[in-house]
Amino acid sequence: MSLVVQKYGGTSLADSERIERVAHRVARTKRSGNDVVVVVSAMGRQTDDLIALARQVSARPPAREMDMLLTAGERISMALLAMALHDKDIPALSLTGAQAGILTDSEHGEAKITAIRGNRVGDGLAAGQVVIVAGFQGVNPDSREVTTLGRGGSDATAVALASAHSAAVCEIYTDVDGVYTADPRVVPDARKLAEVSFDEMLELAAGGAGVLMARSVEVGRKFKIPIHVRSSFVQDEGTWVKENVMEEAIISGIAHDTSEAKVTLWGVPDRPGVAAAIFEKLASARVNVDMIVQNVGADGCTDLSFTVPEAHIEIARQATAELVVELEATGSSVDANVGKVSLVGAGMRSTHGVAARVFRALGDADINIEMISTSPIRISCVVNRDSVEDAVRALHAEFDPPVITAEVGADA
């Protein structure tokens, strides 16, 4: 008997009919001889509705109270699913993140899982129950405060539970049937990948592919837990995210992200310690920085550009305005009309000319590149936001990423 962890997103649990469909799938997995842990998100757009409701009653809702509010969504889902399973004669036990022993740091709204303790999940499995855990939430062991893990946190919950309880696989059920070579809404002929490596999936997630949260992929890679991304609406195989794949394609996929802004500090003194001062200030303001580009001039000064999430624009704007004064820089600017396009593939490590083809494809499409960042398996370009989808289509046409057919695990 093996343990299967299944995670169901909000779309899969949007109403009673869909909860019934999920219960049927879970029951089938249990009756096939598996132990089952299920991680659930809030129903449909309930989290967004709760956020909107909070803003109707408070201009600045306290972070602690927001966490108390938002964790209610997953508790509703877990209880309803447990009820549906009981009606199918499948014993089920619903647990909050805290009850399941999910311990986090103290950062409300963006907490990170630090450990999973306690035996309630294991005890439930030993008693023959399907254990249903509320995703997206945990508890800080020092303050005993409820915390949330940020957008996509239910994925992290699922993979962390899979690693803590030595699951054979973590299945992520969503409204898409796998990871594609590009967003099918942008590239209609994008194709589903049978498998992708952890490293490639991390780069795709960081590049904007919203199928999996990057933190969940990191946990899967660390503990070597295969992740199967699949649709809750069909029985087809999805995409396997795992350590070793059959063949390293030159390009596995193209991701894009239009939720970032470019921040630039002009005329920064070019001397040791200045970059540290800049990014220490941003870090203390809890601004997440992605791409960084520095252009050194002949006048002893440098221009420094970096990208930040849209949610951090105003904080970054204030911090950089203060840095202009502190460093005696020329000035600063924030450009929210940008987007990022990323080409990802493990085969880039051993293939010459990929960068040249990227820049030529974008040039031929009359798309100007504002920033460039690379890793051994990724090339990312910041372009004007209005050009992002054209850039994705141009790169997909240039590289036409192949789909590798793989032998994958049996359908649970």
SSE arrangement:
Elements: E1 3-8, H1 16-31, E2 35-40, H2 46-57, H3 63-86, E3 92-95, E4 102-104, E5 113-116, H4 120-126, E6 130-134, E7 137-139, E8 146-148, H5 153-164, E9 169-174, E10 195-197, H6 198-206, H7 214-223, E11 227-231, E12 239-242, E13 253-257, E14 260-269, H8 274-284, E15 292-296, E16 301-309, H9 313-327, E17 331-335, E18 338-344, H10 354-364, E19 369-375, E20 378-384, H11 388-399
Helix pairs in contact: 1-3, 2-3, 5-7, 6-7, 8-9, 10-11
> What is the 3D form?
globular
Residue stretches low in confidence (pLDDT < 50, at least 5 long) are 403-412
Rg from alpha-carbon coordinates: 23 Å
Helix content: 25-40%
Task: Kindly report the spatial arrangement of strands forming the biggest sheet.
Answer: 3-6-2-1-9-11-12-10
Mean residue pLDDT: 92
Counting DSSP E segments of at least 2 residues, the number of strands comes to 20
Structural class of the helices, strands and pairings?
Answer: alpha/beta
Counting DSSP H or I runs of 4 or more residues, the number of helices is 11
Described by strand count, sense and barrel closure, the largest sheet is: 8 strands, mixed
Q: Distance between termini? A: 12 Å
Share of β-strand residues: 25-35%
